[in-house]
Amino acid sequence: MSEMLIPRQKRLDTLFYLMIAFALLGPTLGIPLTEGFNLTFFRIAYVLLAGGIILRLVTQKNLETSYMYPVRYYAAFFAFWFMYGLLSLSWVMSMGAALKYLFYMAFMLPLTLSFPFFLQSEEKLWKAKRVLFWVFAAIIFYAVFESITLIHLPPSAFFKTTSASVTSVFTNQNDLATCITLGLPFLATALFMLNLQKKHKWFIYITGVLTIYILIATGSRSNTAFALPLASLMLIIGLPFAVEREKLTKKNIAKAVAAIVAAVILANGLSAIFLSEEARNAAKNKLSSTLGFLQDIKNSAWHMEDGDTGIEKMQTGESAGVRKWLLINGFKFLQQSHYMGIGAGNVEPWMAKYGVKVNKVNLHNWWGEILVNFGVLIFVLYMWLYFWMLWRLWKLASRKHSPSLSPMLRWAAYSTMAALTGYFFGGMAPSSAIHFTPMWITYGLGLAVIALGEAKKAETKQSV
């Protein structure tokens, strides 16, 4: 009887795939219980999955995790990071904001580690990739529908309005754009690195065209002008190392260039057809003002003058000045905390009380958020592990360093590395990334690929 109560691995795997699908969809699928709390399907699946794992651990007195050895330092850091957050409760200004932030961490950090925990084989990794692709495609297809009908989903900041803004399952355009720049490298590389049927390649290509169209519609400067080009640059640099030389013929390169040019032309054509004049002008003005945005940041003052605390008016509007002063205020708070951090989730209460020249309370910068909330120690460890992940993914993607890897694992390493590289700028778009599941999912995929890839390399060395 006791064995019948133990959740079977297949059921736990199914719950895992459901959980990551619901995680990407966010609060779109959920039950609002109070004004400030939404019981999402992701949280339900997460709790059921965690309960199943705990039950198995209690009944079997063992939980096999040896295959996660290559990513042990990430698990240790996540545990240390969370404990540091708990310790920071002793000095935070707002206990409520800190507990809310730690609540998010309690979901996101295990979500990330669940990828190397559950994806113990290439078959399971491939299944997870397919699940995430179909959810990503659904997000994009709804965004296309939204851009035409102006029907927004409940999580959108523009719900119950006829705003031309496109947000899909997210709250704002920047979140959607960041999800897009994390997902596009996987679509682009799948077309030439995976052995797919022609009909599947066409479907991925069409999805990619629509994705570019939606990215244009969001008007996100940081993602369109910086994150995507940086990810694309990484793909170009890594191409001769990750792809067989016999595939890099002039003919294939010409086809790839033609496909990219056609995708951009088609995406712009869709913008002209489907986007309203208001939406086109808004996106065009934001994207065309990128250089002016940077120039405003460069030319504006970086210190208080005559005690003026008002919002700076610049040529491209208030955004450049506000984002700059959010960081300046954040660095000031960090210094006042003796570089230990002001505590989990306390940027917003500090900014609301002490921030000057700003009309927002969140830093709108993931890297700054980690630094100011948790201090120099956590920030340095986080960044060191992040760069180390990119380096390990690069070695797995390289045919020279990892000749024994399968095409699927090499593709996963190559595309994840590019996506996380682009996120250096993409992380500066969302208001906060602590609950931004596309980032944590991509991070988790990176850990899963490292665990599988390095285990595969070790097996090959032993068999030689």
TrEMBL record:
Transmembrane segments: 40-59, 71-92, 98-119, 131-153, 173-195, 202-220, 226-244, 256-275, 370-391, 411-429, 435-453
Keywords carried by this UniProt record: Ligase, Membrane, Transmembrane, Transmembrane helix
Alphabetical list of InterPro entries matching this protein: WaaL-like
Keyword Transit peptide: no
GO molecular function: ligase activity
PANTHER family from the UniProt entry: TEICHURONIC ACID BIOSYNTHESIS PROTEIN TUAE (PTHR37422)
Protein name: O-Antigen ligase
Species assigned in the record: Laceyella tengchongensis
Taxonomic lineage of the native organism: Bacteria, Bacillati, Bacillota, Bacilli, Bacillales
